[in-house]
What does this fold into?
Amino acid sequence: MTHHHNLTTPKGTVWLTGDTHFGHAGAIAHTDRPFRDVAEMDRLMIEAWNSVVRPGDTVVHLGDFEWGHTPARAAEIFAALKGRKHLCVGNHDRKRVTDLPWESVQERLTVHAEGRRIVCDHYPMRAWPGVFRGALHVHGHTHGSLPGTSQSADVGVDVWEYAPARVTEVIARMEATPEQPEERRRARERDEVWLTVRISRPPNSR
It folds into this structure.
């Protein structure tokens, strides 16, 4: 596993997802998922994934793929999911997950798709590389508890109807969100204060 990797996606649709927690009964209660039990959750989320992803598509999973299954069952679920799959490791991803035949496994992945630079990490970041040059950030981990911004979004299944999200739809949701990322907002506020101070100074004090 590497710390960081760059990915220029091949032809096909790019999908973003995370926090599937296959096999994890606690995830049903923790995030109030609409499933009776683990068996139903696994089955319906596999169906939802395969209803949109095609075999040649690229899927970036933002971590917490599975929790509680045997290595054999984890491998069975992985094999059932369509697409060329990349993993950004989450806090619940053990060796039985990282050893699956992912296209790549890393802590952070920078995806170049739709003319945008997208920094992918399991955890939400307050600042990320390229934010002042328009780079976007997607994450999981928070199960929809943190609001998105004009450049960041939670792409976990709890936010996207328990299926992977098309990258163009994620970008569109960001563009429709007026709130700027914290780092950019604070920089703007700092500049506004500086400008106000300069304007308010008497001429002989300059």
Q: What stands out?
A: The two ends are 56 Å apart (CA to CA). The chain has a mean pLDDT of 92. The domain at 2-177 is CATH 3.60.21.10 (Purple Acid Phosphatase; chain A, domain 2).
